[in-house]
């Protein structure tokens, strides 16, 4: 049984694969101090981890794996080259490992050029050419981070109510103006990306992941939503 773990700033997601269908789950990353999920299997032979949550969380995961299974988890790292993909960063360690793994999975699962969009705490967009070169990317705040930043740093902005549905209409109170404004930016991002992909003549296969990835795919009207793309990349990195 192999346990794959993807630790983001908001959620820790896990997947166990081996005999039979995979089992999976998630918990809030901040709850990791209370322990890992009890639903994890008793028999695990290998643990692979993608984490952007820092050394404290890495230590918690390591301690848990050693205590429960006597295993030392393997942490993926961004590198200059892996599984046919060449990193564009002069210092590959500066690239978030989640981006790197998603690109490895996207390139190898599609066997060619791909555009990988990860809609999590941050929205990242990366291009990998047909010969495996990372052709650069973009990083912008995610939906919740944009709203949180505005609400936290503008004293007069008060969230009178939560806007639960996606709406692009101009807001008629402060809360709706904030959240609809965030939606407006999110929609503009996908529109600009689709225009670029169309200009490129369909060269790049569009792969989408992350908590808001389904929404991005719905707005874009194309692309493949793969919620476990980062964990898929662990196979190629390790």
UniProtKB/TrEMBL annotation:
It catalyses: (R)-pantothenate + ATP = (R)-4'-phosphopantothenate + ADP + H(+). GO terms for biological process: coenzyme A biosynthetic process. It is found in: Cytoplasm. It comes from the Bacteria. Its cofactor is K(+); NH4(+). Its main location: cytoplasm. The active site is at 98 (proton acceptor). Its EC number is 2.7.1.33. Substrate binds at residues 89, 96-99, 174. Pathway: Cofactor biosynthesis; coenzyme A biosynthesis; CoA from (R)-pantothenate: step 1/5. GO terms for cellular component: cytoplasm. ATP binds at residues 6-13, 121. A monovalent cation. Ammonium or potassium. K(+) binds at residue 118. GO terms for molecular function: ATP binding; metal ion binding; pantothenate kinase activity. CDD domains: ASKHA_NBD_PanK-III. Keywords: ATP-binding, Coenzyme A biosynthesis, Cytoplasm, Kinase, Metal-binding, Nucleotide-binding, Potassium, Transferase. It holds the Pfam family Pan_kinase. Homodimer. Belongs to the type III pantothenate kinase family. Catalyzes the phosphorylation of pantothenate (Pan), the first step in CoA biosynthesis. This is Type III pantothenate kinase.
